[in-house]
Amino acid sequence: MADITRRFGWRHLRSAPTAHIRHHKRGKLAHDGRGLSFWYRSLTAALSEVPVDDRELAMAFHARTADFQDVTVQATVTYRISDPAEAANRLDFSVDPDTGSWRGAPLEQIATLLTETAQQHTLDVLARTPLAAALVDGVASVRERVATGLSAEPRLPATGIDVVAVRVVAIRPEAEVERALRTPAREQIQQEADRATYERRAVAVERERAIAENELASQIELARREEQLVDQRGTNARREAEEKAAADGVRTEAEAARKVRLARAEAEAARETGGARAEAQAAWLRVHGEADPATLHALAATRLAENLPRVESLTLSPDVLTGLLAKLGRPDGGAGA
After folding, report:
1. pLDDT in tens, the chain (337 residues)
2. What is the Cα–Cα distance from 306 to 13, expressed in whole angstroms?
3. Contact 56, 76 (CB under 8 A)
4. What residues form DSSP beta bridges with 39?
5. Phi and psi for 27 in degrees, rounded to 5?
6. Other beta carbons within 10 Å of 319
7. What does the buried/exposed string (b/e) look like for 282-297 if buried means 16 or more CB atoms within 10 Å of the residue's CB?
8. How many Cβ atoms are within 10 Å of 171's Cβ, its own excluded?
9. Region for residue 118 given its phi and psi (left: phi exceeds 0; alpha: psi -120 to 50; beta: otherwise)
10. Residues 46 and 79: beta-carbon distance below 8 Å
11. C-alpha–C-alpha distance, residues 15 and 138, integer Å
């Protein structure tokens, strides 16, 4: 929409580069072109604004296939107005000189024309196409037929409209029919999934069997090694017992030899000690045999006195003293008190 400003009863219009402006003044064309900017008086001006940029028209309509199935077609048509003067002559692109807004709805008229034309050609194609073929190849065939039909439509060039591109987005059946059509594929996919699951389980079972066999082989090898370990331990124990027994025998023999040598030494010492004692005893007896009786009596008394307990004091009566002296072989008057 053009920008219109007011100044002292005059109007100033400034259009966009993508808008074609036609200004008629008193029935004559005063301004004609894109992106114009000029002053005018609203009472004597007749303005038309025709957009010349590419426009996207989205459309959706229902059609019926050869097997009487309802489908929904979604398409997009790109068009532009190549002849603004012809379009302004055929359609109402006039704008209010005070506000710049369209008085009518020319773009809606173009949309209706394009939609109805595209729908007519789409219905013509799908009416002779079964549903399965329409869903598989219908997009390309409908797009080609609609593009050809719009290019051959005489009303579009007469209105100054060029079709730039036609795109068919989708052709979809009703929800129930679509679910029914999806069922075989879903079943096949499910079967493939089940097969993959079974294969995965089979592989898992095979792997578990291999693992169990490896564990069993490991246990057998471990038992065999334990048996070898027990045998080796028994051998080591027997060897240790034999070594210990041999060591005990050597130690016993050494101890016996030591005891024999000790006994021999003790016996030799005993013989020498006995001989020495015998010689000492013989010498003692020889000495005593040669000594007089009085000396022997004195020695006996001395030895007796050595073995008696200590006597602090001793009192002898005259009779006892006399008898003792008599035994010692001394006269009564020869001893002093």
Report:
1. 777 888 888 888 888 888 999 998 888 889 888 888 889 888 888 898 999 999 999 999 899 899 888 999 999 999 999 999 899 888 889 888 888 888 889 999 999 999 999 999 999 999 998 988 888 888 899 999 999 999 888 989 988 999 999 999 899 988 888 888 778 878 888 888 888 889 899 999 999 999 999 999 999 999 999 999 998 988 888 888 888 888 888 888 888 888 888 888 888 888 888 788 878 777 767 776 776 777 767 777 777 766 666 666 667 677 766 776 777 665 544 444 3
2. 167
3. yes
4. 12
5. 80, 0
6. 8
7. eeeeeeeeeeeeeeee
8. 24
9. alpha
10. no
11. 43
Kindly state the tokens that stand for 18. Answer: 């993508």
3-class SS at 99?
A: coil
3-state helix, strand, coil in the chain (%, to 5): 60, 20, 20
Task: Read off the tokens for 27.
Answer: 């029935």
Report the alpha-carbon distance of residue 77 to residue 168 in Å, rounded: 9
Task: Give the predicted TM-score (pTM) of the model.
Answer: 0.54
Residue with tokens 């359609």: 91
Residue type, 294: A
Cα 281 from chain centroid (whole Å): 106
DSSP state of 8: T
Q: Which tokens go with 156?
A: 């579009």
Q: What are phi and psi of 166, to 5 degrees?
A: -130, 130
